[in-house]
Each structure stands twice: as C-alpha cells, then as structure tokens.
Amino acid sequence: MSLNVDRENTAFTFKGGMLPMTVMELSSADPEEVEAQLSGKVSQSPAFFQHTPVVLSVEKVDGPNLALERLCAICRSHKLLPVAVRGGGESAKQSAWALGLGWFPPVEARTHTLAPVPDAEPAVAEPVAAETLVAHGGRVYRGTVRSGQQISAPEGDLVVVGAVNAGAEILAAGSIHVYGPLRGRALAGIHGDTDVGVFCHELHAELLSVSGNYKRLEDIDPVLLGKAIQVYLEKDHLHIEAL
Amino acid sequence: MAKIIVVTSGKGGVGKTTSAAAIATGLALRGNKTIVIDFDVGLRNLDLIMGCERRVVYDLVNVIQGEATLNQAMIRDKRTENLFILPASQTRDKDALTPEGVEQILNNLKDEFDYIICDSPAGIERGAQLAMYYADEAIVVTNPEVSSVRDSDRILGLLGSKTRLAEQGKEQVKEHLLITRYNPHRVDHGDMLNLNDITEILSIKLLGLIPESEAVLRASNQGVPVTHDDDSDAGQAYADTVSRLLGEDVPLRFHEAQKKSFLSRMFGGRR
Question: Do domains A22-109 and A131-242 have the same CATH topology?
Fold first, then answer.
C-alpha cells in the first residue's frame, strides 16, 4: 500500500525542488588565477557575492593535481558558498565528498556552455553564436498540465502539447514551448541561462520568467492576452512579443 | 464485478452529495444493484439527502473497525429497489478511515453490486484521497465559476496520479465532467462561466449538465433524491446523465436560455 495521505505528525517530507544555481565553470585549475579573477569580480558586482551557493564545474580542469580544497577556500573567502562539484573523475568525486560537498556527474558531450551569470559579467559580452544547439535532456509532455502539478525539464527544453492550467507550474533549464493555452506559471532558464525563451499559442500566464526575470499577469500588456507570443530576455529586461 | 465510481470536486458545496444520491438512484431505477457510500466522515449528509437519517445504526467507520458487519451497516432504500446506502460516521473524523479498511469493504461489495458510488468529501486530503483511490471512474462535479473549475482541475491532477489505477500505471481512471447549478440566463449575462469555457479548461468529456433548479433544494430538504422528480428539469437532467453513464447517446438539454412563452409569462409557469 503506497497511498500517500497527509499525516499531521510527520517531522518532514521529501520534496523535489528546482532551485536556480550558479555554476562556476573552471577553465583554469591554478588557484592563483582563480583568486585574481574572483577579486576583480567582487569589486565589479559585490551584490552577487552574498554567500551565493555555487556548483564548481571541474570538467575542463580535472586532473590528479586538482586542488579542490584550496579552490573551495578561495571561493569562501570571497563569499561564494561551494555546495557541490560537477564532473571530473573518481578522485574529484572522492575529494568532493571528503570536503562535505555533493557531486554531480558531468553533463555529457555538452554542446554549448551556459551563458555567464548576468550581473557577474556586466562589461564584457561573450561572443554568442547566432544559434546555440538545444541541450539534450529536453522533455515533451503531452496532455493537460493541471492546477497543482509541476512539470520540469531540468536539463533542456520543455515542450507541452496541451494546455497549462491556472495553478500549474512548468520549469525548464532551456526554453519552454506550449502548444496550447498557457494559464499557469512558466519559468525558463532556471539554471541561469539567459539565451532561452517561453513560447505559447495562447497567453493567459500567471507568471512568465526567464532566468529569474519575471512578469506577473498584472504586468503583462492586456493586448497580448490570448495571443500567440514569445518571451525573451534582452539587456536584463523581459520582453513579451506577439508572434 | 461492480464498477467503482467516485463523485468528487475539490471544492465544497458544489453538489457532490446531491449528485451522488441522484445518480445512484437513477442507476438503481434502471435495475442496477447500486450502493452509495458516504466518505464524508464527521460531516455526514448523504443520509439526509437519501431520507434515511432515522434508520442509521452503524456506519462506515464501525465496519472498518470491526464493530459491525457490512450487512448491519447497509441501509436498504425504501423507495428504490436495488439501492443501498452506507452512511458515514458523524462523531469521528477522517483519520478513522484506513486504506486497508476501505479496500476490504469495497472488495466485499464488489461481487454483490453492479455499481459502487463513493461520495467524496470536499478538499484534497485523506478523506477525498481515500474516496478516489480505488475508483474505476470519476465524476467531477463543477459549478460554472472560476474557483470551482480550478479546484476540479486540481482534483483531475490527483485522479491522474494518486489513485490505484494511476499508480499501477496500466490505465487511467475514466473521468467525467458533471456541471451543476448551470443557469443559462446568468451565463448569457456573463455572471457565470459558459459550458464551452469549462469544458475547454478541464478538457474532459461532459457527462451531464444540471440546471440551477428549485427542485434540487426541495428534494434535499425532503430527503428524496431529485431523480424521483421526473417533471423537474434537474430530475430529467440527472436521468440523462445516468443514461450517458450507461453508454447511451443522449442530446444535451437545459444549456440554452429558453425564451419564456407568452402563455407562461401570463400565467407565471414555473418550469
């Protein structure tokens, strides 16, 4: 019997959650270099460094001499809180665990890099290819997403073929496409990817968000309601546009 | 083997118990051996609607806790052959229900009856979840207003995940939409959601539409399910609903505002 009924006297419940997380993708394993660059960033945007949880991605720099402990200490001294390590081999995994950090498997054959966190990189815009390949791990959901349901694509795009009703929530690391009326909440770019969007056939959304920038139904121009639209981020500003 | 049908809605006061009583009566009137079970432990109402409140001795919780047998607790309806009622307890709360106990009762009833109608309490907690857990089919009762539609949407989500059929992953609970308290005049004035809006949002098949009717309140207070009132619009609408539940193709009625005829305006015809 696996009937899930609410009991008042439980100490806790486990719940799946999708939280925005900053990934610090290391391209150098040299602690001095990391330290120097971090110091520069702190002076540029101190607001970002408020015990922000980060995942250290060591995919590019993994090796026997990876000074994970040292790197973590540097992060902490700049008010970044390493919570997990991503990628690397067995030794990276073991040292992450020894340091009390979580370990995530590498994102295999990544075809594009995450766009940098916007307020950490205000001055230099990275050259963005005209077209970034859609990350795999996307998800296609067929049917109505109902009030109280949450459908997510933690690693790619989410496509819903059907309606998303009021009180429902859909999330994706990549873009969100709804082939039907969107009445609930849609959050794209939940890991900070800014080069993603929300697309739907009929806009009635309670909330639209791209990479943490959001608009509530109240903020949406009523002219757009009921229309086919796209939502995208430009200069930290959320744009909603009829298609 | 009986078909287990849950009558549910999420929101309270939309007409679950009235509908459960009316549909159970309609099924029994057509020769199906039917039992209607009140799952609203602590807020027992079904016995009043069915007019058997003075004959309740034992209830669902007594049976679950082994204090009475099923046969002692079941009440035979006086008006309709083939119809039985299993009342809820008024003095207990919903924690007295256990999944094992409910399963046991349903298993015992399954061989004897053609239809088991479970009248769900409002809400989405234990009582409502237990009422729907073993269902083969669900009748989702909705009023033409936004809060009711949203709650029904939530219930439909639970029907798709928190039922035995859903957990086994073999098939879905068959979902039917029943719209109650529909008033075409008020829909035309924009006071109420219209039929198409509701079916579009919930996107399940419409089983029936019951017009807002004086007959329903009268029936409740008299303790006679409205299905017995053949002359009333609501009585006929429930009869249509039962026909569709049995697989007949019946055209929809009562969904359009009728212009009052000259004569009925002159003489104040009620229906």
Answer: no
